[in-house]
Amino acid sequence: GDRASDLVTRTTCGYCGVGCTLDVHTRDTGILAVTPAPDGPVNRGHACVKGRFAYGFVRSPDRLTTPLVRRSDRLEPATWDEALDVVGRELARIRDRHGPDAIAAISSARSTNEENYLLQKLMRTAIGTNNVDNCSRICHAPSAAGLIASFGLAGGTNPAEDLDVADCLLVAGANVTQAHPVIGARIVQAALRGARLVVVDPRRTELARLADVHLRGRPGSNVAVFNGLARLLLDRGFVDEEFLAARADGVEELRELLADYPPDRVADLSGVPPDALAAAAEAYGTARRPAIVYGLGITEHVHGTDGVRTLANLAILRGAVGTPHGMGVSPLRGQNNVQGASDMGALPDVLPGYQRVDDPLVRERFAAAWGTPVPERPGLRIPEMFDAALAGRVRAMYVFGEDILATDPNSGHVRAALDACDFVVSQEIFPSATAQVADVVLPGSSFLEKDGTFVNFDRRFQRVRPALDPPGQAYTDFDVLRAVGDALGVDLGCSDPAAALAECAELTPVFAGISHERLDREGALHWPCRRLDDPGEARLYGTAFATPDGRAHLAARPWLPPGEPPDADFPYALITGRRLVHYNSGTMTRRTPNLALVPGEHLDLHPDDARRLGVGEGDPVEITSRRGMVTAPARVTDEVAVGEVFLTFAFPDVPANLLTSSEVDEVTSCPEYKLTAVRLRRA
Ligand code: SF4
């Protein structure tokens, strides 16, 4: 074709939760380029190396283009009719013989709101169970639990725009320039403009090097550090007494607890020197417009919810949330739509909009609309699904758009759980490790082939529009889920994604004003958005908090030890995470030119440890935990502290999650990816 036939499709990036607006330029059936939209509300003309360049996966020869069905122990191509027939028959058989709770589904934080809405509806209606969860369980579930308890709603308090006017940014447990690069660049700009920057991170990240203060605590010490900061804010009078009296509870209880957190003790618990703690308290405590931004370094711990709550304490003490000068508390969501997957009710205890399944009025409203009763008992969380499979209580799993064998912790345990199931369905775009052990594989679609919406990290609904058709016989995931409903004899309704969001909005007061039509006409909308003329609430809690009593709640939570601290046998602390070029399990980015930039995994190791182990740059190192062993070449760097090492899980030949443990957050069951005890040896 010539230039005149080129098309430009405006959509939202499918990688991280920042939610950059992208223009996808296509000619015929191929992508010419992806460019950041100059008027994108979050990115304003910027994008990172993932969103901008890592789109080639979409036409990779590895794409699944036909359904696969296991026959005599091999996955073989099948027609849609054959595959759907097996799925419908097996799920119905297991439901009828073992009960609806013998089936569990993991929904996809990589997929649209409309698809997540449909999958939870499928499980609750066609199967009759609340056994549906999504990967926020293993990343930001502590954010939802912690922010609801502190402030009332399960999302960040302020929009991205507020980062530009903050005069102090406290960035905790987030390697923002690598994992959320467009927000990272914005924070760097704020720092260069003169905003004070405090970084809480065990690693000396790019942002930590730039920071006014770097609080470099040991992994697992967040609660001690935040309690230490809270104590200093109180001791030094850096608190908003008027705000506390009028709008918050729990200050006396907190004050009592904090008697145990003088700077010297905090230093013992965390390794953070008292002078650094004092400098951080002074920076955040004296700022006029302080902001907190945090990531998985806070949530992915056995006390992750306590981490969120004790961090939120700092904003409450300063009156820095729900006030004109308060730049709030913002969780940086990892996957593009992990906020939306949760918002849509792909969770075992809540329906869309966090409406509880154990509330009879809520159930009645959904049952009336769906024409079938909604199960009352909350379902299983992801880690519980695996335990239940091993115990024979879960017999079938439906895994939508997640490679759980690569990304969930303690992969050996996950593999055993899938093996124990009678029937596993994987709805996928690549032959992932999980797809390879499934009984039926249903080929779905990538974000570049979808119509729908995502909710990005600051509760912003944005449109997703298809630039391409799914390849071969693949369907959009929306159509696959509808077809699975049909195979089970249930019409899920929702003839298209716009209708699905309309149905969800009708049943969910906080989304009632949101529709595709409005998003197309007006652009992005923040929830809560309660009426069609409601502009949406970018900044929350201006008049009251959304807790039952309308007040913010301080949390008096002690520091407690991590799940698996290093010891004599396993003396190193392994931290797992992400790097700039690759995204999570690497399924997409490894199939793009980004692979040339970072072709393989390496273990970050401090020079002193490298010397002690006799390991040079590039030498292979055996990394062994109580559960498994992997080998990776060393990268000797002081980005990690002595006694700490770092790996990502982006490469299948270094399956980091063979090492990670089944230790989980006591409140939400979020795994402790950020601390695994390991030993090291030159291979
Ligand atoms: Fe996509 Fe995130 Fe990069 Fe933006 S910052 S282009 S949303 S990966």
Question: What is the fold's blueprint, element by element?
Answer:
Layout lengths: L6 E6 L8 E7 L2 E7 L12 H5 L14 E4 L2 E4 L2 H19 L4 E4 L6 H15 L4 E2 L7 H10 L17 E5 L3 H4 L1 H13 L2 E5 L5 H5 L2 E3 L6 H14 L5 H7 E2 L1 H8 L4 H8 L3 H13 L3 E5 L1 H4 L4 H14 L11 E3 L6 H6 L6 E2 L3 E2 L3 H11 L11 H9 L5 E5 L3 H4 L3 H10 L2 E6 L4 H5 L2 E4 L8 E4 L4 E5 L12 H11 L9 H11 L8 H7 L2 E2 L25 E2 L18 E6 L16 H4 L5 E3 L1 H7 L6 E5 L4 E8 L7 E5 L27 E7 L1
Parallel strand pairs: 6-7, 6-16, 8-9, 8-12, 9-10, 11-22, 12-13, 16-17, 17-18, 23-27, 24-26
Antiparallel strand pairs: 1-2, 2-3, 4-5, 4-18, 14-15, 19-20, 20-21, 23-28, 24-27, 25-26, 25-28
Helix pairs in contact: 2-21, 3-21, 3-22, 4-14, 8-11, 8-12, 8-14, 17-19
What can you see in these coordinates?
The chain is an alpha/beta fold and 683 residues long. It has 4 domains: 3-59, ADC-like domains (N-terminal domain of TfIIb, Single Sheet), CATH 2.20.25.90; 68-138 and 338-526, 3-Layer(aba) Sandwich (Rossmann fold); 141-332, Dimethylsulfoxide Reductase, domain 2; 572-682, Barwin-like endoglucanases, CATH 2.40.40. The protein has a 7-stranded mixed beta sheet with strand order 5-4-18-17-16-6-7, with helices on both faces. The structure holds iron/sulfur cluster. Iron/sulfur cluster (SF4) is lined by residues 13, 15-16, 18-20, 43, 47-48, 50-51, 180-182. Keywords: 4Fe-4S, Iron, Iron-sulfur, Metal-binding, Oxidoreductase, Repeat.
